[in-house]
Amino acid sequence: QTCALPISLLASPDPNARLAVDHFVYRIRRELGALTAAMGGLDAVVFTAGIGENAPAIRSRVCRDAAWLGVEIDEAANAAGRGCISTGASRVEVHVLPTNEELMIARHTLRLLAESQGEFK
User: Fold this and answer.
1) What is the DSSP string of 10-58?
2) pLDDT tens across 58-69, in order?
3) Which residues lie closer than 8 Å to 34 by C-beta, 6 or more apart?
4) Percentage helix, strand, coil, to 5, in the chain?
5) d(C-alpha 118, C-alpha 59), whole Å
6) What's this model's pTM, rounded to 2 decimal places?
């Protein structure tokens, strides 16, 4: 499973595991701030894929660090882990969306094959 390593890090008593998680969250905070500045604002944050869908503790920490952007999450919704997890007072919507990477890879492959044979319209 994609998220097995980070979740095991969250549960580990090893100080190095905590350091790894702290660094991971720091990098997200840094990139989120940089992207927000580059785009001139932020409408929504979307968590997806292995960690984004399955690690409410990571989502909570990332959103807490993004409070300066107006991000506010509902911890019960975050624990449930689907759909909109931001509060009504949040200036930025926060969502958890499931992904299906295999389906997207198959669709893109099919499109490339069809284009290469002149069948794509």
Assistant:
1) HH---HHHHHHHHHHHHHHHHHHHHHHHHHTS-SEEEEEHHHHHH-HHH
2) 999 999 999 999
3) none
4) 60, 15, 25
5) 44
6) 0.79
